[in-house]
Amino acid sequence: GHFGRVYLATLMHGNQSAEIVAVKTMKYKAEECEMVELFLKEAVLMKDFQHPHVLGIKGITFADDSTPMVILPFMANGDLRNYILNPELNITILNLLMMGMQVAHGMAYLSSHHFVHRDLAARNCMVNNSGVVKIADFGMSRQLISCEYYRVKHGKDPFPVRWMAPECLEAKIFTTKSDVWAYGVLLWELMTRGAVPYAEVENWQVAGLIQSGELLKQPPFCPDVVYAIMMKCWTQDAQERPTFDQIISDVNSVVS
Q1: What is the tens place of the pLDDT at every residue in 157-180?
Q2: Which BP terms in the Gene Ontology apply to this protein (predicted)?
């Protein structure tokens, strides 16, 4: 994750029962107060999420050395990218679109609560043992309260350039509309079963391609109507991009 490592653990409910969970720990020392604050801020963001396609938390605890640990539901099938990369799974285009629909529902919920994810990608969605997809990894998320965008200050944090909209690269401005751009890339990931966007070029070259209007090509076997949804998400003018509710309607019209 953005801030820590994740371990498999057992959560004891008194003497009654035990539950398999995931525990996220910090990869920084507890003395690094700023990182502890950011780590806990991610947990606080997640505690209020109540949606079938957004990963919530079960609780927060502390290790003996005061390092915070976040207790998460165990997602047996791991992250979405590795899930769709598994050649042993017989996944159809319809299955992939239904996964995309679940992510769109989760993102519609987050945007309705004024959250911008900033790092939406297949690797940051999780799949449980029933095949339900949940958006996760909120280490870069921000709540938009007094304004409609979040502007990044100059810093050293790495950014997922292959999923970033032009305005993110040019002005470091993130909005729900930049999440829509990233969703288009996630949909492309689904249709390619986990390919890396712009795999033929280095990270430092990707920004120039995106800013010049170079878009990801239509994947083989991807229906034209699905690629059209991606293209809407990648409209250069952020305000012209669809909302997540509109995306849900568009994807639903394809699968129904």
Answers
A1: 567 889 999 999 998 888 999 999
A2: cell migration; cell surface receptor protein tyrosine kinase signaling pathway; nervous system development
Give the span between the Cα atoms of 41 and 55, in whole angstroms.
15
Of 30-39, 56-65, 89-98, 219-228, which gets the smallest average pLDDT? 30-39
- Beta 133-135 vs 68-73: how paired, if at all? unpaired
**Of 230, 245, 229, whose CA–CA distance to 112 is shortest?**
245
Asked if 114 and 143 count as a contact pair (C-beta separation under 8 A), the reply is: yes
* C-alpha distance from residue 54 to each of 46, 76, 88 (Å): 9, 15, 26
Q: Would you please indicate which residues are annotated as catalytic (active-site) residues?
A: 119
Dihedral angle at the C-alpha atoms of 79, 131, 175, 223, nearest 10 degrees? Answer: 100
Domain count, the chain: 2
The pair of structure tokens assigned to 73 is: 């539901």
Residues 241, 177: contact at Cβ < 8 Å? yes
Query: Which of residues 73, 91, 121 is at a domain's end?
Result: 73
- pTM summary value: 0.85
pLDDT of the residue at 36 = 65
Judge contact between 183 and 104, C-beta under 8 A.
Answer: yes
Can you give the length of the chain in residues? 256
Q: What angle, rounded to 10 degrees, do the helices at 224-233 and 244-255 form?
A: 180
Residue 150: what residue type?
Y
